[in-house]
Amino acid sequence: MFRLPATQRRLIYVALFESLAIVLSTILLNMMSKGDGHSSLPVAVAVSVIAVVWNFIFNTGFEAAERRFGIVKRSLPLRAGHAIGFEGGLVLFTVPLFMVWYQVGFLDALMMEAAILIFFLVFTFFFTLAFDRIFPLPHQQMQDA
What we know:
Domain Chlorhexidine efflux transporter: 7-68, 74-136
Order of helices and strands: HHHHH
Number of helices: 5
Protein name: PACE efflux transporter
Keywords: Membrane, Transmembrane, Transmembrane helix
Radius of gyration: 17 Å
Strand content: under 5%
Largest sheet: none
Transmembrane segments: 12-31, 43-62, 83-104, 110-131
């Protein structure tokens, strides 16, 4: 168990998450495209960059809308809308990328995106579970001391 300040913990989380995500999604994209790792690595990196940038833009806008409408607590439907909005926006960027890079049609690219989405749902759950055990939240660290 490593005790870290909140900002350092967040930076390590993002760096580890994105590094592993790039490696694992390169393998997945490689399997789906039946290509080699060299052809899928640039796409995995591009998708990672797109996801990080889109995450920042989307969440900035979403939180601004929450403030504007006076929303102080996220209900289950609001959380579902948040997730659908984020993933929907990501699809708008990644499906055309897959179509151009792999020279596939819309449905093939959409299926690739669906596979990546399912992979990331599982990956994020297990990564965060392991990360939280290795690097507990600062407020959890105080309780454990």
